[in-house]
C-alpha cells in the first residue's frame, strides 16, 4: 500500500500460488520487494505463473508439490531454503470449496476438503515453522473463509475444514509468540477467482472481491511493523457479505 518496497531481503512461501488468490498474493509480495516460492501441483499453470513473476525481475521460484503429501511439502520447503537460505513469510492459501448436505457428502468429498484445506496447512507449518524460528521470527497468514465463522447449509465439510484451520492457527499463534512469529487469518467471501473472471461491468461483479483486493490485505499484514499483529480479519464485498442481508 506504500510505494517503497518493504519486503526487500525477505522470502515468502505461498501455497496455491499457481492461480487465483494465491497468485495475486505472490504478485503483491514481490511488488513489495520480497522473493516468493510458489507452491502448487506441478503443471503448466505453475510454470507460467512463476515465469511471469520472474519476468518482472522478481525473485520467484516454483516449488511443485501436492500440499497433502508430507514428503513433497518437506521437499518444497527445502528447495526454498536451498535457493534463498531463509524463510520469513508463509501464506497458507491452497484450498478449495465443495458442498452438499451432510447426508449427501461422500467420504471422498470429506477427505478432499479436510486433506487440502486443513492437513495441507498442517504439513506446511510442520516443515516451514523451524525455518521461521531459526530466522528469529516471521509472519504466517492463513486463508480461511466466512465459513470459519458461521455454519453454512450445504457446506458442512467445507466449514469443518475452515473452522479447523482457524483452531489450528489460533493455537499456533500462541505457540509461536515467544519466537516472534505472528499469525493472522484472513477470511474472505466471494472471490472473483475460480472460473472465468467476471467482466468489470458484469452485474455480479459487485458481489465478488478481486483477488488483488484480498492480496493487498495480506501484503499489509506481512509488511506491518514488527510489533503489530492482526488476528482474524474478515473481508467481503459490501453487496454480499454477512451484514448485507
Ligand atoms: N473463491 C472464493 O470465493 C473463496 C472464498 C473464501 C475463501 N476462499 C479460499 O481462498 C483460497 C484460494 O481460493 P481460490 O478461489 O483462489 O482457489 P483456486 O483459484 O481454485 O486456486 C487454488 C490454488 O490451490 C492450488 N491447489 C489445489 N490443490 C492443491 C494441492 N493438493 N496441493 C497444492 N496446491 C493445490 C491450486 O493449484 P493446482 O491446482 O495447480 O495445484 C491453486 O493454485 C482457498 O483456501 C479457498 O478456500 C475462496
TrEMBL record:
Molecular function via GO: oxidoreductase activity
Alphabetic keyword roster: Oxidoreductase
Keyword presence, Oxidoreductase: yes
One Pfam family recorded for the sequence: adh_short
InterPro entries: NAD(P)-bd_dom_sf (IPR036291), Sc_DH/Rdtase_CS (IPR020904), SDR_fam (IPR002347)
PANTHER family found in the cross-reference section: 5-KETO-D-GLUCONATE 5-REDUCTASE, ALCOHOL DEHYDROGENASE, PUTATIVE (AFU_ORTHOLOGUE AFUA_3G03445)-RELATED
Family statement: Belongs to the short-chain dehydrogenases/reductases (SDR) family.
Protein name stated in the entry: SDR family NAD(P)-dependent oxidoreductase
Native species: Eiseniibacteriota bacterium
Amino acid at each position: 500500500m506504500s510505494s517503497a518496497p518493504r519486503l526487500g531481503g525477505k522470502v515468502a512461501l505461498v501455497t496455491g500460488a499457481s492461480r487465483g488468490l494465491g497468485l495475486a498474493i505472490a504478485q503483491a509480495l514481490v511488488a513489495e520487494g520480497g522473493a516468493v516460492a510458489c507452491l502448487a501441483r506441478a503443471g503448466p499453470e505453475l510454470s507460467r505463473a512463476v515465469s511471469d513473476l520472474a519476468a518482472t525481475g522478481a525473485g520467484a521460484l516454483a516449488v511443485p508439490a501436492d500440499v497433502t503429501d508430507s514428503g513433497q511439502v518437506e521437499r518444497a520447503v527445502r528447495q526454498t531454503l536451498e535457493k534463498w537460505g531463509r524463510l520469513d513469510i508463509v501464506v497458507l492459501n491452497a484450498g478449495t470449496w465443495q458442498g452438499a448436505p451432510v447426508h449427501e457428502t461422500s467420504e471422498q468429498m470429506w477427505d478432499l476438503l479436510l486433506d487440502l484445506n486443513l492437513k495441507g496447512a498442517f504439513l506446511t507449518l510442520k516443515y516451514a515453522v523451524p525455518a521461521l524460528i531459526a530466522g528469529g521470527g516471521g509472519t504466517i497468514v492463513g486463508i480461511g473463509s466466512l465459513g470459519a465463522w458461521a455454519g453454512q447449509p450445504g457446506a458442512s465439510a467445507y466449514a469443518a475444514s475452515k473452522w479447523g484451520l482457524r483452531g489450528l492457527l489460533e493455537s499456533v499463534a500462541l505457540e509461536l509468540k515467544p519466537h516472534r512469529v505472528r499469525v493472522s487469518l484472513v477470511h474472505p467471501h466471494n472471490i472473483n477467482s475460480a472460473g472465468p473472471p467476471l467482466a468489470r461491468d458484469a452485474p455480479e461483479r459487485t458481489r465478488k472481491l478481486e483477488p488483488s483486493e484480498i492480496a493487498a490485505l495480506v501484503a499489509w499484514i506481512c509488511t506491518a511493523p514488527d510489533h503489530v499483529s492482526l488476528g482474524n480479519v474478515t473481508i467481503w464485498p459490501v453487496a454480499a457479505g454477512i451484514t448485507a442481508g
